[in-house]
């Protein structure tokens, strides 16, 4: 018998843990934020139920308001707690190179985060990695999208101990209010643009070891 239940794009419950860590680092009680978004505070282990993308996005937006941080996605990506990493991220960072790490992420993330689609083109010159959020349009995706890109760049920078050679970055924002902060963090040598429908980042080389 076929399952006719509607598909709900979702993310790993670890995303809730990332919001929790961010708020607690700043002395903010995360429980009211979780409660306001209908997210169980204790349900953020990998074995817990996944969280719909729109709910995660709402959690990011609520946390941004409480913390008065208009670039919360960037802040969370930059200050990520690696001890909170999912097994997927640990495995990615175990790859011998950036190329193989991104190939692994592109191949397996869809089985954990059905709300994220990825594509990786290592054969292009320059190479390109694209991550897009699948959502139902009921919540702002800007901060969540910013987090995904900021986290990935910060993770690669930390793992390789050298700047990620970015040539181009696009974000799923509807305005450019935090463009200056993004440019300062990402140090894009070619250009950084705000996009509404896609969020690629393009790298000049993928030979760095993780």
Task: Report what the structure shows.
This protein is an alpha+beta fold and 210 residues long. Helices cover 41% and strands 16% of the residues. The protein has helices at residues 14-25, 31-37, 53-67, 72-78, 87-93, 98-108, 142-160, 179-186; strands at residues 10-11, 51-52, 116-121, 127-133, 166-172, 191-195, 200-203. It has a five-stranded mixed β-sheet with strand order 3-4-7-5-6, with helices on one face. Strand 5 (166-172), helix 8 (179-186) and strand 6 (191-195) form a beta-alpha-beta unit. Helix 1 (14-25) runs parallel beside helix 3 (53-67), helix 2 crosses helix 3 and helix 5 packs antiparallel against helix 6 (98-108).
Layout of strands and helices, then pairs:
Layout: E1 10-11, H1 14-25, H2 31-37, E2 51-52, H3 53-67, H4 72-78, H5 87-93, H6 98-108, E3 116-121, E4 127-133, H7 142-160, E5 166-172, H8 179-186, E6 191-195, E7 200-203
Parallel strand pairs: 5-6
Antiparallel strand pairs: 1-2, 3-4, 4-7, 5-7
Report the sheet with the most strands, covering strand number, pairing sense and barrel closure. 5 strands, mixed
Order of helices and strands, N to C?
A: EHHEHHHHEEHEHEE
Can you give the helix content as a percent range? 40-55%
Output the number of helix runs. Answer: 8
Poorly predicted runs: 190-199, 204-208
**N-to-C CA distance:** 45 Å
| Morphology call | globular
Rg over alpha carbons: 17 Å
Please state the average pLDDT score: 79
How many DSSP E strands?
Answer: 7
Note the beta-strand portion: 15-25%
Structural class: alpha+beta
Trace the largest sheet across and list its strands.
3-4-7-5-6
């Amino acid at each position: 018998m076929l399952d006719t239940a509607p598909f709900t794009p979702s993310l790993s419950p670890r995303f809730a843990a990332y919001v929790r860590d961010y708020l607690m680092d700043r002395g903010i009680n995360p429980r009211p934020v979780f409660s306001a978004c209908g997210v169980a505070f204790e349900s953020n282990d990998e074995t817990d139920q996944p969280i719909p993308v729109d709910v995660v996005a709402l959690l990011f937006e609520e946390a941004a308001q409480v913390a008065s941080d208009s670039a919360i996605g960037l802040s969370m990506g930059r200050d990520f707690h690696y001890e909170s990493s999912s097994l997927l991220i640990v495995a990615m960072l175990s790859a011998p190179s950036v190329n193989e790490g991104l190939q692994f992420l592109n191949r397996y993330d869809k089985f954990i985060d059905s709300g994220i689609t990825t594509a990786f083109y290592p054969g292009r010159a320059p190479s390109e990695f694209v991550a897009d959020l699948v959502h139902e349009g009921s919540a702002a995706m800007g901060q969540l999208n910013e987090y995904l890109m900021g986290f990935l760049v910060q993770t690669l920078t930390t793992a390789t101990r050298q700047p990620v050679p970015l040539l181009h970055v696009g974000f799923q924002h509807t305005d450019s209010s935090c463009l200056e902060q993004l440019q300062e963090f990402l140090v894009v040598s070619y250009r950084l643009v705000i996009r509404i429908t896609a969020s690629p980042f393009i790298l000049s080389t993928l030979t760095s070891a993780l």
